[in-house]
Amino acid sequence: MSVPIALLQLVRAGNLIIMLATLGLSYYCLTDYLTIEDLFHFRFVLLAYCVVAIGASGYIINDYHDVQIDLTNKPQKVIIGKLISRRWAMLLHFTLNVTAILVGFYLNAAIGIMVMICGVLLWLYSVHFKKQFLSGNILVAALSSLVIIILPLFDKEISGYLVWCYACFAFGISLLREIVKDAEDLRGDSKFDCKTLPIILGIRKTKKILTTLLIVYVCLIFIHVFIANSHIPFRHDYGNITYNFYMLLFVCIPLLVITYMLQRADVKSDFSLLSTLLKVIMISGLLSMVIIKI
Asked: Given this model, what pLDDT does residue 1 score?
């Protein structure tokens, strides 16, 4: 593997593209007056850099502190110490963090402070919270939702209701996925004094908690769908029906299918599949924003 490809894998280029797409899609679809050209405005490009840079630095510092665990869980994917030295990894992490914070303060103080807090929390997650009972899962889920929550700090014209709806959606799916990933990595985590949900409670109780969360989550989405008429500014009369149908077909039903699959999940590959499916559902749910705009 070449060094450029290793760098792309280290910073999770695919996940960064999803973050960037989420930021752009949210800004475009949840702000009524916006046009495609506005997404290429210099200030929004700087905001996009902040989000991508702080995300990439988080992935780097996480891998930096997880080399030994990853050698057990996924040895074929370990990059730091093999293809990229630990010194260069830390230098890249520092550079991305500092430039993201500086650009954030250039945009405005609120964004700069949020980016700085995110950087600190990502570092704390990698060195401490990752191994703690549930707190690491909640922290990662909250940070994933900040990709959307940062937008009102950038443009006050964006719909506050929709920002919080989609931020909560991202938080919920991310929390579920983080717990599933802990179940997937149970073997490696247990060797390094991690206190994740599956290690403390066991797989059976973890599956019960996930099932409860999934059912509650589907119910919350149903509530959102049924109050959509009065809170979502659809541009056409058919928007409400299309939106409701889409959410039921491409979000609620797949989540119920995952609930069923979870009951049969037993080995690492089962939880790996569930993790992938949850990522697909997150993308599918975020794409529902397009219906609001068209």
From this structure: 65
